[in-house]
Each structure stands twice: as structure tokens, then as C-alpha cells.
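User: Show me a protein chain along with its predicted structure.
Assistant: Here is one chain, sequence first, then C-alpha cells.
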Amino acid sequence: MKTLKILFTGLLASGIWLTALPAHAGKQAYEPMSASVQAALSKSVSDTAVSNVSYLDNPQGQAWLNEMSKRLTKRIPDPEQRMDFLTTVNYEATRAGLDPELVLGLIEVESGFKKYAISSVAARGYMQVMPFWVKAIGTPDQNLFHLRTNLRYGCNILRHYLDIEKGNLYRALGRYNGSLGKPEYPTVVVAAWQKHWSYRPTTKTAQNTVTPDSHSVIIASRFQ
């Protein structure tokens, strides 16, 4: 993780603007899985509807949605579509134990927020999921261009790779992109996350001073 932090710092110092970079959709490679892992992944991507988003119906949740919506306006101009997208990203990322803002950074790099993006190796949708995953852990009726299906697959695949790599985000992102061991993709994803989607709300203390909340502390500590 120290290597990733150094690379990320170097990228920002070089003055490279991420908006000028091409999408970095790669080719996730199929790896044999044990029956138990396959069953767990199959259950995790089952196409069940988002049942409860009440966790966002609070001041902090609404502040997050409003801020992310502002940042995403140029990418997804329609307000209703944008809010549906952000709500689903938040739900699926949280469900998979991921930071929603990391997922936004990954989507920026993978597809540029294009719902119907298809890469040269047939990866599909927002999170550029390879079709072999549907055959391996899904059902034939699942459409990788469907918002919730694509995000559910993408988030759970990244979670799977994080588990394989024992929490090493650098290596997990490399697996996700099919470029394990190469620094470019993890560096660009983390830079997009931190530069464009990292959110640090503030709270007022009893002394009426403004301090970062615990969420920002967690983000800041991940690359130390």
C-alpha cells in the first residue's frame, strides 16, 4: 500500500489531469473457484431489488447525495437518472463492504459513467464486467447493462478480489483490471477517487469548531 501511495502522490505532482486520460477497461481473467466461493458469489449477485435505502434518509446521507449529484451533473445530466445511479452505487458498494466513493472512482476510469460502454474485450456497462461472470455465478436472464445488475456484479467482484488479496487494494484493483502487478491502473483509479469523489463532510463540536468526521479519517488512513 505504501507503493500505491507513492505512485498516487507522483501522479498528482506531475500535473496529469485525469479527465484527459482514456478509459482503462481491462480484461478480467477467469480463475477457477471452489464450490463454496462460487456459491457465495452467486448468492451475492442474485438479482434482488434494492429493498431499503432509508439509511440515506438522514442529513448526512442527503448531504452526500447532494454533493455527489453536483459533481456528476456533467456526466449524467438527468437529475432523476443521476439520483437513481448514486443511490444504487451507495447501496451496492456498502452492501459489498466497499467505499462508494472508491466505486465512483473506478467507474470513472472504467467506463466514464457510460451505461452502455463496451470495451474491446467485451467488458460491459458502468463497471465493465466481463460476460463470463454471468455464466460462472449468475443466471442467463441477468443483463450486464442493467444498472443494479452491473453495479452488483462489479462491487462483488472487487470485494472477491480484495478477499483473495487479504485487503490489499493495489493488488485487488490489478486483478479487477486484468493487470495484476502493474502500477498504472490502481494508481489512476485511486487518483480519480481522491481527486474527484472523496467526500469529507464536517461536523461542529461543542466548542463550535469544525472538524472532519470519522469518514474522512478512515479514507485518509487507508494509504498510510
